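Recap slide: MGT4C acetylglucosaminyltransferase, sequence and predicted structure.
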Amino acid sequence: MVKNIRLVIAWLCRRSTIAALFLGLVILLTYIHIKTSIVEETPSTPQIGDFHWQKVDDRHPSTPQEKNIFVRQKKESLHFSTKEDVLDPLKIPYNILLGSLPPSSQTKYLSIGISSIKRNKENYLMDTIESVFKQLSPQEQDEMVLVVFLANFDSSVNIQIAKEISSKFQEHIDSHRLIVISCSKELYPSLEGLKRNFNDPEDRVKYRSKQNADYAFLANFCTVLSQYFLILEDDVYCSKNFLTSIKKHVSGLQGAWATITFSKLGYIGKLYHNEDLPKLARFLLMFYDEMPCDWLLEHFHQSKAQKEMIRFKPSLFQHMGSFSSFQDNPNKLKDDEFQEFYGETGDNPPAVLRTDITIYEENLPQKCYDGTGYFWGKTLIPGNYVLVIFSQSVQLQKVRIITGSEEHKADILQSGYAEIGWELVGENDQRTCKTFVSIGDFKEGKLEVNDLDKNIPNKVDCVNVKVKGSQSEWLLIGKIDVWIAHS
């Protein structure tokens, strides 16, 4: 710049007119101003890719170190959005092999996600899909959508399985109740050279890390489909009317929650808010190589301030397979709290339950009425009872009582009946009904009586389970359900 100024001065000296001097002075001042501005705007720091680095204003640094801090800024306008880039679903390209997304105006109550890979010995996917639809009523089916994620890296295997699904469940595909998807292998994080946490074999670390990514992709896809999202495995048998059971339990919860489980096995039966699925997907991908999926799911609900898992009993889903998807290892794990016959739940108005049967551990009679567990008692003798006392008199339409369980099939009421009563008498733990009338005997541990409102028009205050004979086996009552007559 100094050289250029000297040239301008020399030119002025060769001109003697005032006009020339004035014009030259204007040119000189303009030139100096332009060059000074360019120097001030030229970055003195290195440029990297699409970003340039700019020093933080160090005119008044709070610490000497701040003089060396650099802030990365885009050359162009910022395109980052917290909503789109963090909270919305990941922009993952999916292959939709079967079905199509339901219309946006038809957001379902429940989306069910199943991730599946082909096994060498036994495959249970078709049986699982059949169980999902078979165990739901037509009304329940209209409230759900099943998404099957075929996680085989060989696309030809996925296409073959999709064809088999199509041949058996085309009705549900056409009705937007069944969608089959896959993803390209290139979308997965690295599965080679992973850390061997917990000293697991390399092949198992690779298997479980891929599985975390599988469920992340599956959860991400289901975000916009429904209000709630349920995880199942591809070797599961479902309880009758499980969607109705889930709805009733969810509606009865108070306070915020992140995860509810409807099974005691792994990640079977885990329920989430769909609005949390983008976070869940990112969580599983972030820690995909650290630990198994069921462990990560525990950490997820804890990270959302839910300290303990919320568990629904009895279990609504049962593991049916005999071989694991990992190297076809034997796996005969069963949920001893599963009840296939759990079925549609009753109205179960507020009530208090008590019994004179010796209770085993914390298996109180109230649990089999509230749906939070089951009653388990021992040393039965004739005359023992389990009494339901309603808070207000009700007109009953139906009563159903189920004893025993899949794991404890012998712990049924072998000889007994149910009765209903009127006119409460007594106080506290002596409270009971003055008059009782039998409504039926237990058969093979079960009792179901319908149309009570037609035969007994009066409102009742009690339902009582009565033991008629001694038995060496314990008594497990899985569920007491009552339905109210609605005019």
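The chain has twelve helices and 23 strands.
The chain has three domains: 2-47, 95-319, 349-484.
(End of recap.)
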